[in-house]
Design goal:
This protein is α+β, with helices and mostly antiparallel strands. Helix 3 packs across helix 4 and helix 5 packs antiparallel against helix 6. The termini are far apart. The mean pLDDT is 91.
Length: 225
């Protein structure tokens, strides 16, 4: 098979954490099966993996693991693959005429590296400049969480967040910076527990040096209560 002939090439792409596109790669029949049908299939696959590793699934601690993992995959950590879970980000008129940038910083990111299916954990900082519409603050967090809850590459996640908010707000003036740790780097491979990855996407006015600098200065501010 072609895949087998190029296995070293594909391993290298994964170890270098190189993505293929700005859209999450999905098959045309991705939603043919119901969530419950997917859980049943994944449950059997997880059981097979565990048995292949030599684990005793009759043990009380392990016997429920295949089902728990399958439910977690479908309903939790990969729930962002389901378009029905996409947040309804309603917008409102900017009646108070706020004309400066709005920054939502330190949004928690829990995602999964698509190359090794290990966690990506970090913070997202998102900003926009209203052109007449505003969006609820919690919706910005929900958009980040929705796109994070799928197998991801951090560059793609950053772009997807910006593109979604641009579409919702009807403006190019959106920016996102993500700083995250990848357990595929921290816990395997090079095992560098100190390093983190920073990605950024700047649209519209945020491409201007002074606007971008203002945004970056805002996210440096320490918030204490």
């Amino acid at each position: 098979m072609k895949f087998d002939n190029n296995i070293e090439e594909f391993d290298a792409l994964g170890d270098d954490h190189i993505g293929s596109s700005t859209e999450t790669p999905m098959r045309a029949d991705a939603f043919k099966l119901s969530n419950e049908e997917k859980i049943d299939i994944i449950k059997d696959d997880v059981r097979h993996i565990m048995e292949t590793l030599g684990l005793d699934l009759t043990d009380d601690s392990l016997k429920g693991t295949p089902n728990r993992v399958a439910k977690m995959f479908v309903k939790e950590i990969f729930g962002g693959l389901d378009p029905s879970r996409k947040p309804n980000a309603s917008t409102f008129d900017n009646k108070y005429k706020y004309g400066e940038m709005l920054v939502e910083k330190n949004i928690t990111v829990y995602s999964t590296c698509e190359h090794h299916l290990l966690p990506i954990v970090g913070r997202a900082h998102v900003a926009y400049i209203s052109n007449g519409s505003v969006v609820g603050l919690s919706k910005m967090n929900r958009i980040v969480d929705y796109y994070a809850k799928r197998p991801q590459v951090q560059e793609r996640l950053t772009i997807q967040i910006v593109k979604e908010l641009q579409a919702v707000l009807g403006t190019d003036d959106v920016a996102c910076v993500i700083d995250a740790k990848h357990l595929c780097v921290n816990s395997r491979g090079i095992r560098d527990i100190e390093s983190s990855t920073v990605t950024a996407e700047f649209g519209g006015k945020f491409k201007k040096k002074e606007t971008r600098r203002e945004f970056l200065d805002y996210i440096k501010l320490e918030t204490q209560f």
